[in-house]
């Protein structure tokens, strides 16, 4: 154990140095892959971590996310990188965890608990015959009071302006002393860079060193995928049950009779199925079949923005209602077959509702072009279909809410990695430029996207010029987009290219990524 502690502490120190060297004044690119390779390698040789199949899959998933950052270098790829890092660390150090949500919480706790964990590990450190525990023992009487004092300095500074002024002056004086001290010891080391090193040290320690309290593993150990029939027992009333009883009586209280709950569920699902049948009938007639009105006169913006958010919310609420009624013994009720049939019909109708959302979004894209929000609607609709499918499995197979969280979490993670493989910025630009004569072309939006689109836009810079003929015939009257003038658009493009050249020449090979390299190669930028 002590040998492994020495290994982890040495790795943490090396990781802090690597963090400082590869991230200081650099963009997030290939340096993230380097850092991930270091974290995965150290974790692999950590004797406390079991090299299970789960460890290998999440290690591969994280390294794939790091490679996607180098290839696409998009915000989505960065998001998938951070999430995959949290999952890799969580599932590596706490392999009894089964849910991605719990793994993320476990990693977050581990990172924030690094001061306590480091103090414990340092007390186990041995250098030859020298033990560091006696040296650290007096510090525990000093560190905690200092932390408390600084917390209350922040609180009192917010409450009193004069106190805040004196506290700020004291902080500036301490910072100047530290800057002079480090400047005297290391001419090339600034206080800011030392703080950056400390941040890297803390983060690396949080990722490499297991928090000694396996809190979330203990909590999740009591959770199961399968529902079990529970016998009623006399339980103490909680505050919530008392409030519920006071305002609503026994209608939805915890002591509601199973038969009463069954009747309420039947009435609810009959009413909800009838309402949704009316709504779906209207959508199929007006939207799917295009009857009753001319689509050229449709206000797609109002229909999508006003309707889609409400529909997606209703679908999520529908899943919540089903989960509520099928949370316990109602699954095993002798007459529950009718209720389950009504619930399945409602789920099918909700899937029809999702299709209506997709048709609305498709019409909107056909008229106004492709944007991130419209792609997001497609993604949310897909997630709703997946959610409804897993809810059906829950009802049919008597699964728990924990099962829904576990399965959907894994599916969403896979979808996140899959979506990060697509260069969405370039896809949006190419689609809108190709369909310029058919859509309400928004050149300002295209110029607001990332630098990876500069090559495509520059190749089609004449297409940025706006004129009355630029708007497609499908665009409804009164919804013509207001755009910059042709001169302003061309000037903005030139400024974007100049800013990219300046930025690209400032950073080193540590900020290398495929998209920037391709753009620099196109514009003939050499370092």
TrEMBL record:
Keyword Membrane part of the UniProt annotation: yes
Keywords (A to Z) from UniProt: Membrane, Transmembrane, Transmembrane helix
Keyword rRNA processing: no
Protein's recorded name: DUF4173 domain-containing protein
InterPro entries hit by this protein: DUF4153
Transmembrane segments: 7-23, 29-45, 57-88, 100-119, 139-159, 194-212, 262-288, 308-326, 338-359, 371-393, 405-424
The organism's place on the tree of life at top rank: Bacteria
């Amino acid at each position: 154990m002590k040998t492994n502690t020495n290994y982890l502490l040495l790795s943490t120190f090396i990781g802090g140095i690597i963090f400082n060297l590869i991230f200081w004044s650099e963009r997030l690119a290939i340096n993230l892959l380097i850092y991930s390779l270091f974290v995965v390698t150290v974790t692999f040789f950590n004797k406390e971590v079991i090299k299970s199949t789960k460890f290998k899959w999440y290690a591969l998933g994280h390294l794939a996310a790091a490679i996607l950052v180098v290839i696409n270098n998009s915000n989505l790829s960065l998001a998938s990188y951070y999430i995959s890092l949290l999952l890799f660390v969580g599932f590596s150090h706490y392999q009894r965890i089964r849910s991605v949500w719990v793994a993320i919480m476990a990693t977050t706790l581990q990172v924030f608990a690094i001061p306590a964990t480091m103090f414990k590990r340092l007390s186990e450190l041995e250098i030859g015959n020298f033990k560091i525990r006696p040296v650290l023992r007096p510090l525990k009487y000093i560190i905690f009071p200092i932390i408390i004092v600084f917390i209350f300095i922040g609180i009192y500074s917010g409450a009193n302006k004069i106190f805040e002024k004196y506290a700020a002056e004291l902080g500036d004086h301490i910072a100047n002393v530290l800057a002079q001290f480090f400047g005297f010891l290391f001419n090339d080391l600034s206080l800011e860079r030392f703080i950056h090193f400390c941040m890297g040290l803390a983060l690396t320690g949080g990722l490499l060193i297991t928090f000694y309290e396996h809190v979330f593993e203990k909590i999740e150990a009591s959770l199961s995928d399968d529902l079990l029939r529970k016998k009623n027992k006399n339980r103490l009333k909680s505050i919530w049950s008392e409030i519920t009883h006071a305002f609503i009586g026994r209608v939805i209280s915890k002591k509601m009779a199973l038969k009463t709950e069954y009747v309420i569920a039947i009435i609810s699902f009959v009413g909800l199925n009838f309402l949704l049948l009316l709504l779906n009938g209207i959508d199929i007639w007006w939207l799917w079949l295009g009857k009753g009105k001319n689509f050229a006169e449709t206000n797609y913006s109002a229909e999508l923005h006003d309707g889609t958010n409400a529909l997606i919310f209703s679908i999520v609420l529908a899943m919540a209602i089903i989960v509520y009624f099928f949370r316990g013994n109602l699954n095993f009720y002798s007459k529950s077959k009718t209720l389950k049939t009504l619930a399945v019909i409602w789920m099918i109708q909700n899937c029809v509702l999702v299709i209506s959302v997709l048709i609305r979004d498709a019409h909107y894209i056909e008229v106004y072009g492709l944007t991130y929000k419209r792609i997001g609607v497609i993604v949310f609709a897909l997630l709703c279909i997946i959610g409804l499918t897993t809810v059906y499995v829950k009802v049919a197979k008597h699964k728990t809410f924990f099962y829904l969280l576990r399965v959907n979490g894994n599916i969403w993670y896979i979808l996140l990695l899959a979506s990060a493989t697509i260069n969405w910025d370039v896809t949006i630009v190419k689609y809108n430029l190709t369909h310029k004569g058919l859509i309400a072309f928004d050149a300002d939006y295209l110029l607001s996207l990332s630098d990876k689109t500069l090559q495509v836009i520059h190749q089609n810079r004449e297409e940025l010029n706006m004129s009355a003929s630029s708007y497609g015939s499908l665009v409804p009257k009164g919804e013509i987009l207001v755009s910059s003038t042709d001169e302003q658009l061309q000037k903005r493009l030139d400024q974007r290219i100049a800013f990219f050249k300046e930025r690209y020449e400032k950073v080193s090979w540590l900020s290398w990524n495929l998209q920037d390299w391709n753009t620099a190669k196109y514009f003939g930028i050499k370092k």
